[in-house]
Amino acid sequence: MTSNCEPRPIRVRISPTAESLVRRGHPWVYSDSIREQSRAGAAGELAVVYDRRDRFLAIGLWDPDSPLRLRVLHCGQPVNLDTNWWRNRLLTAVQRRVGLFDEHTTGFRWIYGESDGWPGLVLDRYGETLVLKLYAAAWLSRLKGLVDLIVEVLQPKRIVLRVSRNVQDAARTAGFLEGQNLYGDDSAERVVFQESGLGFEAEVVRGQKTGFFLDQRENRRRIENEAAGKDVLNVFSFSGGFSLYAARGGARSVTDLDISAHALAQARRNFALNQDHPRIQASRYEQIQEDAFRWLADSPVRQFDIVILDPPSLAKREVERSEAIEAYERLASRGLSRVRPGGLLLSASCSAHVTTEEFFEAVRRAVQVTRRSFTEIATAGHPPDHAATFVEATYLKAIYLRMK
Questions:
Q1: pLDDT at 301
Q2: The pTM of the whole model exceeds 0.90
Q3: Cβ-contact 386, 323 below 8 angstroms
């Protein structure tokens, strides 16, 4: 991770506001907060922030082509970021997951970016395959050392590289391709892993995110516990995760609704992986390929005992926030029309630009308009392997309503 020929760190001074934020643990410094820098720097170089009294404040990764100019690795007393430091940083993230999962769950997140001290980097496990996703070009110059470290500590059979869109050009220039193997010779685009004893595919080379949505694990488990004898509608079903849990929980029927033929095909494969389970065999399984908003509004009225609304992000940028809040309210209103008396609505959001309270209030408003009585059973956030340590890392929220 650190070579003997690494250049002397860039010296940086930042605005008083940014300095206060860094002192409080915020891991980002934006370009417009940079007041002085000792020299131009390349992506991935180390930069040291000095405070107004010329004392060490923080050290991080420099990214000259990003408005997020510095990603903080450490704040406080000066440290030497040698190989042992990086190894301990990885071992700390691993230690946080100890005891969370048994042999029946082999898919989870080893590193959740800034919240684990690895800004702009995610590492997910799918069985013996690890997927490393980069959201910052600053990591590209350190990839070889990083891979060596991961292999030493976690001993996977394969590591696949995924890069976000904003990093793909820089990755190509550095000689890396989206979906390439960084370690191991397995070329499979899909790998099978276990979650709570269920088998699932992860599309590690070309799938969304790192190949699967690991963050809804706890909500899927809750739906399984509610599903016995119920008719379940899974809206924006994607690869059928909620549906498989519901079927194993004894659901009478499960219906997947998604516009993507590719997603529905993956859901069918996931059901096929688990056909040895008698409850999954017994549950009637149906798929509907249709736009979810349109189907909920226009199709003949069918009602269900459990309705799950888990759309993709409806606000990828801050300017889309108000429209997303309206869309969440509209979606909840349409979903509620499909919930039988006594039934359950689970509404979830993965939009970081919509706050938890904004989302919950949108769903509550949708219920109030229907004039139906309800009991708010629970709300939920991030699972323990995705624990968020600062506001911008918080994106997942869910609310459970029992309708009268």
A1: 87
A2: yes
A3: no
